C-alpha cells in the first residue's frame, strides 16, 4: 500500500470512528445505558445479594452503613442527618469511608421542609404519570413469602403495588409495568432498560425502580413510625450516569421531605458504581424497601409512607409554597452533568482529527505549519477584507500608464499575488 493510500485509509478510519461514537451516544440516550468500561469485563450493577453484607465504617471504625451490594472506592453516602462520606478503601466485606462534611443542600432542604405546611389537595395539577417497575422481579421477603427469591413473581410486586395504591390515593397518575427481568444477574439492568424506555414513552414525571436490600439483619431497617413497625427505605443513585447530579438533587429533596413527615422513613442516600438506567431522566431513583429478612408487610407500610412525599416534591397535587426551591420538574431547571458524555465524544473526535492531520502531513512540524498557514489565511480573509481590497486597488493603480503609486512596492505585488492565488 502506497504512502498516500495509507494516509487516506487512516484518516477515513478516524473520521468514521468519530461519527460512529457520536451516533452510538445519540442512540444510547434512549435504547441503551451510557457506556461503562466495566461492561467490557462482564461486570454489571451487582446488588441486593441475599445474605451478603458489606459494612461501611468511618475512619474511626464506627459503622456508617450496611449494604447487600458490592461497594467500590468512590461510592458515597449521605445520611438523613446530612453527613456525607466517600469510600476510600475496600478490604473484603469492609469498606472505609472518609467524612466529607455536612451536605449543605440537604441541610437547607431539611430546614425548609421542617417548617413547610402544604395545602391539602386531591386535584392533580399534571397528567404526567409516575413510572414504576422492578429490575429484580424475583426479590422477596423470607418471613412472608417463604423465600428470598421467587422467579418472575417476587414479593416485591406487592411492595410496588403498595406504592402505586398510596400514590393514586394522593391523586397521582401511575404507570406500573410488571414485566419480569429474571434472572437476578449482572445483566438484569440491561433487560429492564427496555421496560424503562417504554415507560418513558408516556412522558413520566418521575421513574422509580423498586427493590429490597439483602443484608441478613432485619433490625437494621425495622423502625416503629406512627405506632407501626415499618421497614425503612434507602434511595440509590448511580454515579456512572450523566444525570447523576440531577438525580441526586431529587433524592435529597425526597429524603428531606419524607423524613420531615414520617421520620426516619428514609435511612440514607447511597451513590454506587453503576448507572441503574437513571440517565433516562433527571427524576429517576432506585428505592430499596427493607431487606429480605423483613416481613413484606413492613416493606409495604414503609414504602407507602415514602409515597406521601412524592406528589409534594414533584408538585403534582399541591402548588409550591412561597420560598420553595425551584421544582425538580421545572423545565428551566438545570440538569448538571448532562453534557459530560457528549463532551467526551467531541474531545475524541477532535483528537482523531488531529491524529489524521499529523499522519497526512507526515509529522508534527508539518502539521503545525499547515494549521498556522490555514488559520493565518482564514483569519486574514475574515478580519481584513478591506485591507486586502485596499492593497488590490493600490496595485491596480500602479499598473495604470503614466501613474506611479509610491505604495505599490514589491511587497504589495507579492501580497496581491497571494490574494489571487487564494
From TrEMBL:
Spans through the membrane: 7-27, 341-364
Keyword Membrane annotated: yes
Transmembrane is among the record's keywords: yes
Pfam families: SpoIIP (PF07454)
Superkingdom of origin: Bacteria
Region ranges (Disordered): 391-422
Keywords attached to this entry: Membrane, Transmembrane, Transmembrane helix
Official protein name in the record: Stage II sporulation protein P
Organism: Desulfofundulus thermobenzoicus
